[in-house]
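Protocol check, entry for the methods section draft. Step 1: assemble the input record (protein sequence plus ligand SMILES). Step 2: submit for complex structure prediction. Step 3: store the structure tokens unaltered in the notebook. Ligand used here: zinc ion. Step 1 record:
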Amino acid sequence: MDLTPGLVCSHHHLYSALARGMPAPPSTPTEFLEILEQIWWRLDCALDEDTIYWSAKLGALEALSRGCTSIVDHHESPNAIEGSLSIIADACAEVGVRVNCAYGVTDRHGATGAAAGLAENDRYLSAGGRGMVGLHAAFTCEPDTIAAAAEMARRHEVGVHVHVAEGPADTWQLLQGHTAPNWWLVHGVHLPTEHGLEGTIVHNARSNMNNAVGYGAPMRFSNPVALGTDGIGADMLDEFRVAFVRAREHDVTTTPDVIWNWLQKGYDLFPEALSDRVAWDYEPMDPWRLAYSPGVSPTSVEVDGVVLFENGTTTQVDAAEIRAKSAEAAQKLWAKL
Ligand SMILES: [Zn+2]
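Step 3, stored output:
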């Protein structure tokens, strides 16, 4: 047995928790933009307040049970925008997992949709919510929308959480001149090494491989680097291992400490997670060993001094009930698709 602080997932999409098992798209996507159009942009349109709540609650439960006590979430639900960030924050609070919320503003649904997304970020942050201003990605945003998000973030003294150069078609150059050190730049796969953007680059190794967008080799940037899952759960030890082996494929001299430092970058947004105590069924919790030890699991998770997970289950919420209600919500969501 050995202890670590709570782990942080620096980029998640909790709304994707109910996507697993969803009906296959009408035709098989053959490239990244088709994956967005045929899977994620159909799913996010089908979300309502109930499915947002249960996907967040299930995602938070899964995070907690893997020793992840803090999540940086990026949300989109074009037909249920207003109040959505508070629903996610409430669902995570009920499970006991911290969350930093952002609504991914986009012009995909016209100027009205963009305005509603901006308004939701403003409403949530003005009410004291923990978060950032979200942008989907430069290639789905008008320049005025990007400028408005940057201005709003400055006003709230937070960063902008935005997908950057995930695929080759992104118009990331539109972000130049707007960024600041507190921006959260997700992916950066197709960014040149000298790109002029300020902020933390958030690497999502498994998601990038899954979407066949290429390898960003984030160690080449002068920016700080953090580690996320892009919605594929919140098992950060597993993500660490995948990011390590992907980095080794690129450069066999990469050491696990490099990737472990990316994992630790999340404490910039969640310093309290350093005081959480996760007990593991393995010792010592050393990056070199963990890189080659699949299946290491938490035996207990303590957040803010309270044990929330022990003996394989949650102590404060009914995990079986959350799974059952989430399964019901998933059926409703899939029926819309
Ligand atoms: Zn993402």
